[in-house]
């Protein structure tokens, strides 16, 4: 395995993944806009109202999605003293990738899983399931 994800052959894989994520994001926005457009046209709204409503909807969704995820996942934020090895690993990986260190939270689930969410890199939260910590 390559020491740095952004070196060598892995760079092509990262770029492919990034491209696929952008395409997926664009398609999701297009589908959402199309649904809102169809509903509002059905009720006789004008195009400017439709665009304003769609923009407001997407801004609201962007703003509240992390909060919904926090509540739905039953997250518990941890300090450096609780899992020092995990914090050290995350700090090293963030430093190697030249990104801000995310906050770390534990989710009370037995499945070994981890994910990151947030609005920006600076507001990112790394969520680790308890099952992953037991491996």
Automatic annotation (TrEMBL):
Residues 84-134 form the Peptidase M48 domain. The chain crosses the membrane at residues 21-40, 46-64. Its cofactor is Zn(2+). GO terms for biological process: proteolysis. One of its GO terms (molecular function) is metal ion binding. The keyword Nucleus does not apply. Keywords: Cell membrane, Hydrolase, Membrane, Metal-binding, Metalloprotease, Protease, Transmembrane, Transmembrane helix, Zinc. This is Peptidase M48 Ste24p. It comes from mine drainage metagenome.
């Amino acid at each position: 395995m390559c020491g740095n994800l952004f070196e060598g052959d892995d760079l092509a894989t990262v770029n492919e993944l990034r491209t696929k994520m952008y395409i997926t994001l664009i398609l999701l926005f297009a589908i959402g806009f199309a649904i809102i457009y169809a509903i509002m046209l059905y009720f006789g709204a004008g195009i400017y109202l439709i665009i304003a409503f769609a923009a407001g909807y997407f801004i609201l969704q962007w703003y509240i999605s992390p909060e919904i995820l926090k509540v739905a996942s039953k997250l518990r934020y941890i300090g450096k003293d609780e899992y020092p090895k995990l914090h050290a690993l995350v700090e090293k990986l963030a430093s190697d990738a030249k990104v801000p260190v995310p906050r770390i939270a534990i989710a009370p689930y037995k499945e070994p899983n981890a994910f990151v969410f947030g609005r920006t890199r600076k507001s990112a939260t790394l969520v680790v399931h308890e099952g992953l910590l037991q491996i």
